Amino acid sequence: MADPMKIRANAVGDSTEVKVLMNHEMETGQRKDAQGKAIPAWFIQNVTATYNGKTVLDAQWGPAVSKNPFLAFKFKGGAKGEKVTITWTDNRGDKRTDEATIA
Amino acid sequence: MNARRRKLLKQGGGVTLFALLAAAGWITPGEAAAAESWNKGAFDTHSMDETMKALGGSAPVPSKDITFFSTPDIAENGAVVPIGITSNVPKTESIAILIEKNPNMLAAVFDIPAGTDPSLSTRVKMGQSSNVYALVKADGKYYMASKEIKVTLGGCGG
């Protein structure tokens, strides 16, 4: 299991601002190791954010997203104390879900 | 005879378990679909035309309603280039980030459901100085904006 994400969700007016920092290698498959062998690609392909059972953001990523990806977005609704859930799936089928409380 | 019955039971049991998990909310149908929704074709493309074809759209129209924010003109480190995109096009459905000179042009696609602000930021990798395109799908049509970002490696200036 991969390391946990850092998620911060803040209620701003009638919206919620979400910032996520994921822990992932995001290997492109373009690099070579010291022996000249290509390092296989390993990156997050899908990211889904849900609030109250409803998807608020659905992303597909390629290997061009930076290592330890950062993502910030905003959605309408959300009150203090409620939860936002983020899930990612990488190309090896590995998966991680974390949730944060809106502050 | 007995062996066959066992096999049947096993298969049946498997299906039931999955159905139970789905019913209990452990596996939601949406989640299962999301795991397979990665558009491999689109992420393998090398040019704007190919990418548009893979995404199933026509040539995008340049739009002034798409703006970049907190995006540098000159990035010191190509491995971490912050990109922020806001779309003021009504009915924005998705935002994609394309980097012209990367090995594969498409970096990320974000689907924006109603109720989510069509504005987001992330960080991408850039192999070299290049044009970056923000591709917005709104009401079935494609719009785009571009910005040139210079990448200086080693911090010597470009």
Percent of residues in β-strands of chain B: 35-45%
Oligomeric status: heterodimer
Strand content of chain A: over 45%
What's the helix count of chain A? 0
CATH topology of chain A: Immunoglobulin-like
Q: Could you tell me how far the N terminus lies from the C terminus of chain B, measured between alpha carbons in angstroms?
A: 77 Å
The CATH class name of chain A reads Mainly Beta
Widest sheet: strand ordering of chain A: 4-3-6-7
Q: What is the count of helical runs of chain B?
A: 4
Overall strand count of chain A: 7
Order of helices and strands of chain B: HHHHEEEEEEEEE
Low-confidence stretches of chain A: none
**Biggest sheet of chain A: strands, sense, closure?**
4 strands, antiparallel
Please describe what this structure looks like.
In chain A, 0% of the residues lie in helices and 50% in strands. Chain A has 103 residues and is an all-beta fold. Chain A has a single domain (6-101), classed as Sandwich (Immunoglobulin-like), CATH 2.60.40. By secondary structure, chain B is an alpha+beta fold. Chain B contains four helices and nine strands, in the order H-H-H-H-E-E-E-E-E-E-E-E-E. Chain B has helices spanning 2-24, 29-35, 40-43, 48-55, and strands at residues 61-62, 66-69, 74-75, 81-87, 92-99, 106-111, 116-124, 130-138, 141-151. In chain B, the strands form two sheets. In chain B, strands 1, 3, 5, 6, 8 and 9 form a six-stranded mixed beta sheet that branches. Chain B starts with a helix and ends in a 7-residue tail after the last strand. Classes of the chains: A mainly beta (103), B alpha+beta (158). At the A-B interface, strand 3, strand 4 and strand 5 of A face helix 2, strand 4, strand 6 and strand 7 of B. Strand 5 of chain A pairs antiparallel with strand 7 of chain B.
